[in-house]
Every structure is written in C-alpha cells, then in structure tokens.
Design goal:
- With about 180 residues, the protein is α/β, with parallel strands linked by helices.
- It has a single domain (about 10-150), classed as Rossmann fold (3-Layer(aba) Sandwich).
- Helix content is about 25%, strand content about 30%.
- The chain is built from four helices and nine strands.
- The protein has helices at about 10-30, 45-50, 105-115, 175-180; strands spanning about 5-10, 35-40, 60-70, 80-85, 95-100, 120-130, 140-145, 150-155, 170.
- The structure holds 1-O-pyrophosphono-5-O-phosphono-alpha-D-ribofuranose.
Length: about 180
C-alpha cells in the first residue's frame, strides 16, 4: 500500500489542526442556532466524524449518498441520489459536508436539490478544494485546504474504494490508476 503513494500532501497532524479551526469557525457562525449536518457518503465520513466533535453547537447528523455517472477518475456531470436524508430539512440550518470539491457538479446538484426543500439556510463545507478543476461555479463556505490537481487518497478519499483509511491525504502514484485504465 505504501508503495502506491508518491507523497503525503497534507499530514494527519495538519488535518487535525485545520479541522479544529474549522470547528471553531462553524460553531461561532452558528452560535445560538441548531444545525443539520449533511454528510455526503462515503468520502466525507472521516472528515465529518472529526469535524462534528469540534462543534460546540447543538446538531443533528444525517447522510446522503450520491453517484456521478462516469468512470473511476472522471465524471460525466449527471448526478443521482442513492440514499436520501431521513430527517426533514424544514426549519433547519443545513451544512453540507464534503471531502472534496472537484468539478463542483456534485455540490451544485446537492445545493439545488436541498434548496428546493426550503430549509432555513444552507452552507457548504469541504476538507479539500481543487479550484483549477472547477466546471461550474459553486460557493464553498468553509474550506480546509485548497490543493493542486493531484490524484489524492486517504482520510476518506478513495481510488476504486481503496485507501480511505489512510490517516494522511496522499498523492497516488500515476502508474496505479494508469495501470487500471489500460485493463
Ligand atoms: C467525490 C467527492 C464528491 C465528488 C466531488 O465523491 O466525495 O462527492 O466526488 O467531485 P465533483 O466536484 O467533480 O462533483 P465520489 O463520487 O468519488 O464518491 P465517494 O464519496 O463515495 O468516494
């Protein structure tokens, strides 16, 4: 597994520090309010579980799973819901939590879909942002790290459902995914 990694891009220690700061910012911004934290499966689960433990406001947790049509490394732009929220968004302040915003298509779809359900407010939070990959404009309210266009795995992010458990954000060696593309 270590052989597949080219470099550590963001260390577990740096992630911990940043997640604490984000938790403080979010808690301050929502002081006196109650939050519905919407985690987007599966990539966001590790970030989300660390982030919510840094929040000092009352909150509920729920999850959505979405899938973009495409192969392992690129998206076609179409998004469908695989698992919807279980709680109602009525009278709730929503915070969508993602692991990464890449083209922006997933987050744009989620924002439009959830906005149509008329919650009190919606904001977005992502651990990683790759601005140079953006295809559609989407507002990121809380961002952990802006990163260059590397293929990253770890801390929830996968390649072909693997590597999610790595504690750091790591750059995958190109030969790992190029090999698979040729198959
Ligand atoms: C990833 C990530 C976002 C989306 C971002 O999910 O978690 O949901 O892609 O890409 P975009 O900005 O180009 O739309 P993925 O489909 O890989 O599923 P996963 O979370 O289960 O890994």
């Amino acid at each position: 597994m270590q052989d597949d990694i080219a470099q550590i891009l963001v260390s577990a220690a740096d992630i911990r520090r940043r997640v604490k700061e984000m938790g403080r910012d979010i808690s301050r911004d929502y002081a006196g309010k109650e939050l519905l934290v919407v985690g987007i499966l599966k990539g966001a689960i590790i970030f989300l579980s660390d982030l919510v433990r840094e929040l000092s406001i009352p909150l509920q947790l729920d999850f959505m799973a979405v899938s973009s049509y495409g192969d392992d490394t690129s998206t076609s732009g179409a998004v469908r819901i695989l698992k919807d929220l279980e709680v109602s968004v009525e009278d709730k302040h929503l915070l969508i939590v993602e692991d990464i915003v890449d083209t922006g298509l997933t987050l744009k779809y989620l924002l439009e879909n959830l906005r149509a359900r008329q919650p009190l407010s919606i904001r977005t939070c992502t651990l990683l942002d790759k601005p140079e990959r953006r295809q559609v404009e989407v507002k990121v309210d809380y961002c952990g790290f802006c990163i260059p266009d590397y293929f990253v795995v770890g801390y929830g992010l996968d390649y072909s459902q693997m590597y999610r458990h790595l504690p750091d954000i790591c750059v995958l060696k190109p030969e790992v995914y190029e090999q698979r593309r040729k198959k």
